[in-house]
Amino acid sequence: MSDKYHHNQIKSVLEHSKRIRILNKLILMILLLGIITIIYNYFNHDDDFTSVSVIDSEYQDARIDTLDNILEIKNSVISGIDSENQSYEITAKKTWNTISNENILEMSGIKTRMMLKDNYSINITGDNATYDNNKKYLKLRDNIEIRTNNRVIAFIKNMFIDLKKNKIMSPSPVIVKFNDICIHSKAFEINDNGDKITFNNGVNLIIGEKSKCMEI
């Protein structure tokens, strides 16, 4: 009789513990569901909704700040492959866009690296730029420099880069320095993956050790 009584007590305790565990799991599920609902409503509120659609991009240690309908990204990297199977990379200290025009990115503190033929690369820096993600088209503005082997060879005011065709164009004046050669031109283009460089609309060529390139 005593053994049966103790057995029933143990059974009751075990059943009670089981019910407690089930209740705890149910409470936990309700809490998780509530948290998910809050997060979902927060990110889908019409007034605060923010979106970005940037293809072929990565953000290394990027910080994303949202303000109204503007998405701001710091320390961004955009990379891809052009039609000649050569790689390119664009880094920016600051990148931002709006949901009304999400494929157009405004950038500042630009560094662009482009691979040409025979593993030859050029590095282009500028203060500001606009990047069209659909067309893969980059427009650089203000204090643009082109470097090869860490050596500045060209100074330009404004420049356009077609990243699909690996084509570089400038409708504004350019100064090119190479050894004792200085070239002044009102416009220029780099085509055929770096094999062809064309200076347009008037060219001034200065040769000699004492030749000095004047600022644009």
Automatic annotation (TrEMBL):
GO terms for cellular component: plasma membrane. InterPro entries: LipoPS_assembly_LptC-rel, LptC. GO terms for molecular function: lipopolysaccharide transmembrane transporter activity. The chain crosses the membrane at residues 26-43. Keywords: Membrane, Transmembrane, Transmembrane helix. The keyword Translocase does not apply. It holds the Pfam family LptC. The keyword Membrane applies. This is LPS export ABC transporter periplasmic protein LptC. The gene is lptC.
